[in-house]
Amino acid sequence: MFTKPKLKIIPLGGLGEIGKNMTVMEYEDDIIIVDAGLMFPGEEMLGIDLVIPDISYLEDKKDKVRGIVITHGHEDHIGALPYILSQINVPVYATKLTQGLISVKLKEHRTRVEAKLHVVPPGEQVILGKFRVEFFPVCHSIPDSTGLIIYTPAGIVVHSGDFKLDYTPVDGKPTDLVRLAQLGAQGVMLLLSDSTYAELPGYTPSEMVVGESLDRIMAESAGRVIVTTFSSLISRVQQVINSAAKYGRRVFIVGRSMNDTSHMAMDLGYLNVPEGILGRIEELHGLPHNKVCLITTGSQGEPTSALVRMLNRDNRQVHVIKGDTVILSATPVPGNEALVNRTVDTLFKRGAEVFYDRVAPVHVHGHASQEELKLLMNLVRPKYFVPVHGEYRHLTFHAKLAEAVGIPKENIFILGDGDILEISSDSARITGKINIEDIYVDGLSVGDIGDLELHNRRIMSRDGIVVAIIALNKDTGKPVGLPDIVSRGFVDSVEAKDLLEKSRHILAGAMGTTGGNGSEGINNVNIRETLKNFFYEQTHRHPMILPVIFKV
Amino acid sequence: MFTKPKLKIIPLGGLGEIGKNMTVMEYEDDIIIVDAGLMFPGEEMLGIDLVIPDISYLEDKKDKVRGIVITHGHEDHIGALPYILSQINVPVYATKLTQGLISVKLKEHRTRVEAKLHVVPPGEQVILGKFRVEFFPVCHSIPDSTGLIIYTPAGIVVHSGDFKLDYTPVDGKPTDLVRLAQLGAQGVMLLLSDSTYAELPGYTPSEMVVGESLDRIMAESAGRVIVTTFSSLISRVQQVINSAAKYGRRVFIVGRSMNDTSHMAMDLGYLNVPEGILGRIEELHGLPHNKVCLITTGSQGEPTSALVRMLNRDNRQVHVIKGDTVILSATPVPGNEALVNRTVDTLFKRGAEVFYDRVAPVHVHGHASQEELKLLMNLVRPKYFVPVHGEYRHLTFHAKLAEAVGIPKENIFILGDGDILEISSDSARITGKINIEDIYVDGLSVGDIGDLELHNRRIMSRDGIVVAIIALNKDTGKPVGLPDIVSRGFVDSVEAKDLLEKSRHILAGAMGTTGGNGSEGINNVNIRETLKNFFYEQTHRHPMILPVIFKV
After folding, report:
1. Is the Cβ pair A464, B457 closer than 8 Å?
2. What pLDDT was estimated at residue A334?
C-alpha cells in the first residue's frame, strides 16, 4: 500500500508559554525552522538570564535543515539565533529590518560563526528544498513584520507570524488581506495563527490612537516631554518624532540601545526623521523646555535603563526634573509590574507629570484580538488549524474561536512543545511527542544549570545557608573540638549569636552520642537532620545545611 | 503667647505602599491608632513572610495609647495585631464581624496576650481620652466595613476606611451618605480618604454585576460550578450561595480557611444560608453534577490553596475534572499574576471551563474610583485633605482630584510614612518626620532579618555559593594540601567538575605567592578576590564566596 508522505509540524517552543518561538516543519528529507526566539526567565528560574528552545531533535538531522525563516525582529523570535547558529549554521531568511536587528544581535554576542543572512523583501519567495516560502507583510509592533505562506508537497501552510490588523498603521503598510483572500480561494491546508491576545474580545485599536495622545501631550506640556518605549518599537519612535516635529520640539535620543536601534532603522530607511529635528545631547541645555522631546528606554522600569538612570541622577547628561512630562509608551511585560509601579511612583515624587497605559491611551499592543483572529480565519479558510504563540489558555480561546467560525473541532489541534503533528490535505493527527526541556542560559554557559541548582538557589533565597565545619581525628574518627557554624542569609549573626553558639553544642552532643567509635554515625545526613530540626524549632526557617567534614 | 494644642496625624504605614495600614492620631496626652495591618512582601524581600508597621515611635508613649480602632477585617488592616498587641496591649474597637476575624487571627497566632476586644456597632461611638470615635458604615469587599468620624478638640476628622459606593450592595447596607452630608454641613476639619483606585476614572460597578454573571453561569453550566474567591470576601460567598440556591445547586465549602471564615460569618449572622442548601462533602458524590456548587479558595493560584490541591489531585475529596466550570472571582493581587495564569492554564488542560476577570465580569473590586472619591469630598467638604492607602502615584492622583473639586492646593498633604502633620481648624503643616523601617517577619522572629541577610539571599538566589575550605599549618601558617571547594546553586557539580578542580589549584597558587611566610597574605579578602575573578572569567557568574580557614 502506498501512502503519500506527510508534512510534520513540530513546535520546539512557544506553545504553552510566551516566548522562545520555534517551529520545525519537516517533509521527507527537508526541514525548515520558523523563528528562533528566546524567553525571559520566570520568577522561579532564579539567576537564569534567558531560556532558549531545545533543539536536540535536530541533532542527527542537521544536514536536512535548509534554513531558518524569521517572521520579525523581536527577541522572542530572533533572540536564540546566536545560540542556535553556533550549533546549526544554516542560512537565515528575513526581511531587511529583521536582518538588521539580527546582525546587531550577532555582533553583540561576538559569535564566531559566520552567519549566512539573506534578505527577502515582503511579497517575495525563497525555495528551501521541497518548501517554497513566501513572506507576506503583516502589521505588528515592529516594522517589516511578516507572515509566511509555505508551499509544501502536502499542501499550503499559512503562518500568521505575530500580527494584528491596522488599517492606518504608522508605516502605511497594512496586513496584506488581499493576498490572504486569494489563498483562501485557492485552498489552504493549515493555518498557524498568533494566539497572544485571543483572550481579548473586539478589535485591537490602531496605532493612530497613540499618535493622537502624543500630539495632545506634546502640544499641552509646558516642559520637556520624555517618551520611553521598547527600542525595537520603531513605529512608536516614528510617531514620537512626527509628533515632536509637528509641535516644534527637537528630539534627543538617550541611551545606547535606543540609539543603536534608531540609527540602524534610519540607515535602512525604516525611520524617517525630518531635517533638523534630531539634536545632539550637547545642544539640549540651550533649548527652552517646551522645545525639547527625549526618547529613551525604561518603559519597564529596568534598573539599568536610561530613564531609571535619569531618575536616579545616574545619567551624566539628563536628569528628570519637576515640570517634565514622562510617557511610558508600553504595557508592563508580565513580571515587571512592580518595577514599573516603582518607577511611576518615583517620577511623581520628582514632580514629573506621568502618562502610562492605565491612565491614558499612550500604548496599543501589537497582537490581534478576537474579531481580527476570526477575520483572518474567514479569509484564509484553512482546512486544519493550529493556534500558536501563547500560554495554554490563549491557545484554548483561539481554538474556540476557530470552532465558532466553522472549522470542525477534529481539525483543530492544540499542540504543546514537542508534539508531532503529521498532516496532509486529507488527514492530520498527532503521532508522537519528542521530549523538550527548557534550556537555561546563565552567564556564559548554556544548559548546564538544571533543576538541582535552581532548587538550591530557591532554598538559599528563602532562608539562607548554614555551613557546619567538623574536624575529626584521623586516627580515632572522633570530633576534635566544637564544630564551627557559619551562616549567610539565615539570621543576623550578631543578634542570633547565642542561637548559633548553641547549635555548635547541640551538634557536638548529637555527634557524641551517635555511632560506636564516634565516627560511623557522623555523616552528612545526621548532621543535616540535627541542625535542620534545631533551627526549625528555634526559628521556623529551613536554611540549606552544608556539612563540611575533614580529618586532622 | 498662647497657642492651642494641635492634633498630630502620623501615618506609620500604608502611605506610599499598599498594605500595613496604620495611622497614629495624637492630641496632648492621648493617642489613638487607626488600623494595624500587614503587608505581603515584595519580590525583593526574599524569604520574608510578612511586613508589619514600625511602632518604635510609640515605645515611650505606651501609657498614652487609648486604643486601636479598626475599620474592617482585611489583613492589611488587622494582620499586624498579633505582633502589635504583644508590644502594646491596649483595647481594640471594631464592628462585630471584624472582631470575629480578629479573634480567629489571634487564635491562629496563639498569642499569650489577653486581647481586650470591644464590639462597636456601626453608627455608635466610643470615647478614647479626648477622642470620640463614631463608626459609620461603608461598602467594601467585606461586610461590616466602616469609616470613622473622629471628634477631637482640634476639630472633626473623617477617615473613609477602605470604601466604595454601591447603591445595591449584597448585604443591603450602602455607605451612609446622609451621615457624611450632615457632617459636611457641620464642618469637617480633615478628611483622610482611600486612594487605592484613584487612578481609575468613572465609577466602580456594583456587586450586582457579579451576581448577574454568577446567575448566568449557574444556569447554563451542565457540570459542577466551582467558585474560588478570598475567604474574607463574605459578600461574594453570599452571592454564590444565593445564585446556587436559585438554580437548585447544593453548596459545598471546601478547604479550612473558607470553612472557618464562612462558619464564623454564619454564626455572627453575616452569611445567610437557606435551609438545605449547604451540603456535607460526603454527600457530594451522590449528586448529579448540575446540582453541585463548590466554594473554595485559590483565586490567587496559591500552591497550598484548596483549588490548586483539587487541580493537582492532592485533595482527598474533590478533583477538578472535565466538564467542571471554574470561576476565579477575584483579581490577581500584584505579584500573583504568574501563579494565577498557571492555574488558569492547568484548569483548561484538565478540560474545565474557566471564567476569570479578563474574560467575564465575575469580580468587582472594593475601592472607590475617581467619581466616587469626588462625591465623597463633595459631601464631606473638608478644610484639609490627606489621601491615604496607596502607592505614591495613587496618592498623587487623589490629591489632584481634591484640587479639582476645589480644595485649595495648600490644604492638601501627600504624606509619607513617618511624616508628622500638625493640624488645627485654622492651620496645618508637616512639622517633622520620624524614622520608619519595614519590620520583617520571617518564621518565628520579628525584625531580626535586615538588609544584609536579604542582600546575601539575593546573591545566593542568583548565582549560588562557593565555600572554600583552607587548612593552614598551625605552626608555619602555610597551607596544608589543596584547598577544598564546595558549591551549591552555582554550577552543576558533575558537569563543572573540571572548573571546580581547577579553582582549587588557582587558589593554592594564589596563596603560595602571597605573603612572606605564606600566612599573612592568606585572608578572606584575598581568597574572595581570587575566586571571584576566576569564576567570573570562566562563567560570568558572581556566586557568594565563603572562605573557611582553620589551623591544623
Report:
1. yes
2. 77
Which one of B391, B421, B446 terminates a domain?
Answer: B446
With contacts defined as CB-CB under 8 Å, which chain A residues touch B444?
538-540
- CATH number, domain of A313, equals 3.40.50.10710
CATH at residue A106: 3.60.15.10
Q: CB-CB: which of B16, B469, B546 is closest to A550? A: B469
Nearest to B65 by CA among B94, B38, B31: B31
Last residue of a domain, one of A301, A336, A355: A355
Q: How many CA atoms lie within 13 A of A6 on its CB side?
A: 17
Query: Is the CB of A469 less than 8 angstroms away from the CB of B349?
Result: no
On the question of pLDDT at A230 being above 50, the answer is yes
Question: Do residues A376 and A188 lie in contact, with contact meaning Cβ atoms separated by under 8 Å?
Answer: no
E strand or H helix at B225: strand B225-228
Chain B residue numbers with beta carbons less than 8 Å from the beta carbon of A16 are: 345
Q: How far is B506 from chain A (nearest CA, A)?
A: 20
Verify that A418 and A538 share a domain, yes or no. Answer: no
CB B288 within 8 A of CB B247: no
pLDDT on residue B7: 97
Q: Are residues A372 and A351 in the same domain?
A: no
Which structural domain, as residue segments, surrounds residue A490? Answer: 451-551
The string of pLDDT tens digits covering residues B89-124 is 999 999 999 999 999 889 888 766 788 999 999 999
CB A463 within 8 A of CB A451: no
Could you give the residue numbers annotated as active site of A? 194, 367
pLDDT at A450: 85
More confident residue, B333 or A365: A365
Rounded distance between C-alpha atoms, residue A479 and residue A488, angstroms: 24
Same domain flag for A314 and A213 = yes
Q: Which among B345, B489, B546 has CB closest to A393?
A: B345
Residue B418 counted as domain residue? yes
**Mean pLDDT (whole number) for A218-223:** 96
> Once rounded to an integer, what is the mean pLDDT over residues A294-319?
91
Check B462 against A492: CB less than 8 A apart: no
Q: Are residues A51 and A77 in the same domain?
A: yes
pLDDT tens track for B57-69: 999 999 999 999 9
My answer on whether B387 and B499 are in the same domain is no
Partner residue facing A486 (CB), from B349, B458, B548: B548
Q: Is residue A347 part of a domain?
A: yes
Are B38 and B128 members of one domain?
A: yes
Clarify whether residues A26 and A121 are in a common domain.
Answer: yes
Q: Label residue A516 by pLDDT band (50, 70, 90).
A: very low
The CATH number given to whatever domain includes residue A503 is 3.10.20.580
**What's the domain count of chain B?**
3
CB–CB of A448 and B496 under 8 A?
Answer: yes
Among residues of chain B, what percentage have pLDDT more than 90? 76
* Helix (H/G/I), strand (E/B), else coil: B213: helix
Residue B156 lies in a domain: yes
Closest CA to A395 of A246, A192, A255: A192
pLDDT (mean) for A173-177: 87
Candidates A403, A461, A524: best to mutate against B (most CBs of B within 10 A) is A461
ipTM of this predicted structure: 0.86
- Residues lower than pLDDT 70 in chain B: 1-2, 111-112, 513-521
Residues 6+ positions from B513 with CB-CB distance below 8 Å: B521
Contact check, Cβ <8 Å, B448/A491: yes
SS3 assignment for B283-319: HHHHCCHHHEEEEECCCCCCCCCHHHHHHCCCCCCCC
**Is residue B2 situated within a structural domain?**
no
Same-domain status, A169 and A61: yes
Within 8 A of B465 by CB-CB distance, chain A residues are 460, 465, 488
